[in-house]
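Hi U.,

Before I forget, here's the chain from the pilot set. I'm dumping it here mostly so it's searchable later in email.
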Amino acid sequence: MILHLVHDEKIINRTIAIFEEVNPHQNIFVVFTRHQLKYVNKQENVILFKDFEKKYSSKDFSSVIVHFLNSRKIRFINKYIDKNLPIYWIIWGNDLYNKLLSPKGFELYDKQSDYYKNNKKSYFSKAFNKIINNFKTIKIEKFISKRISYIVTDTTENDHEMLLKYYPKLKNIPWKEFFYYPIDSVLSEKLMQKWVDRNNIQIGNSASITNNHEYAMRPLSKLNLDNKYIYIPLSYSGTKEYKESVKNKGLEYFGDKFIALEDFLPLEEYNRLMLSFGIAIYGNFRQEAVGNILISLYLGAKVFIPRNNPVFFWAKKLSLILFELESINQEEIDAPLDIKSRIHNRDIILKLYNLERLKSLIKENFMQK
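Structure:
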């Protein structure tokens, strides 16, 4: 039986269903939340982390899959999981870039944004936080080197290359592949046949600070948007202060053409809304919003990403057609992506990120021989 350590996140219900389909009644999902479940559905094989000790022990399981690695899961593993049990770490993004790469110098934030400038901490506060973060990073690296049996990337396999660039001592840990977004599972059969049919603009996928919304808005504000509306999803993640900063900047730049999406939308409704986004702009400097990027490309949107984002290099390696955010210009936002490029992107995504291939990866990579 496989033990899954997960967060209370929207994608987990789909993940549970797929693992159960491939390996029925052989999965237990431990949800790390101190509150009642918000996104993950209650079911027989789902428990809260505080209830684990009452129901199970390490000997009940053949392996552990960590869906996003953080300090709480590290403490859980050290306390409950036998050292001989194989442990898979599926990288989500924040656990790699924010926790491991940023302390080593990887840039995450747009330092020219109003939010960043207005929230600078004192020299002593920054110095103290740097010491604390460096200490945490050392603990995480030590844990990975001693306890992680396999490093697994979600969609963008060059995250493994990024990890080894900063932590070459981890090169002996084997790499495996996985993805959370099978396009034929995320989109309905009807939407699978659709193309984007309007020219509105989406910026980012959530209210997380690493979306760097102002970085994305800045060059766009210098262009003639004509009849285009700017939509920014802010219903997920982030702080109240950051959301207010994004909304203020959006209104300053775009006036009544700016629309903040603050209410959580069901997946089907959100995907239908994405049909109106002929242009999708992601200001992230790190791997983030991969599911949204895949859907944007599949539906035929023009996608713009910062040139320093590893996702940009991943996409180019796959021959996906997308654009540098830093080079965005009037001609590029006026002309929709041509049909040949749309079909090209769709064919690549559907070939690589489909449900049957995901099932095969689960069988090959996680089910003990």
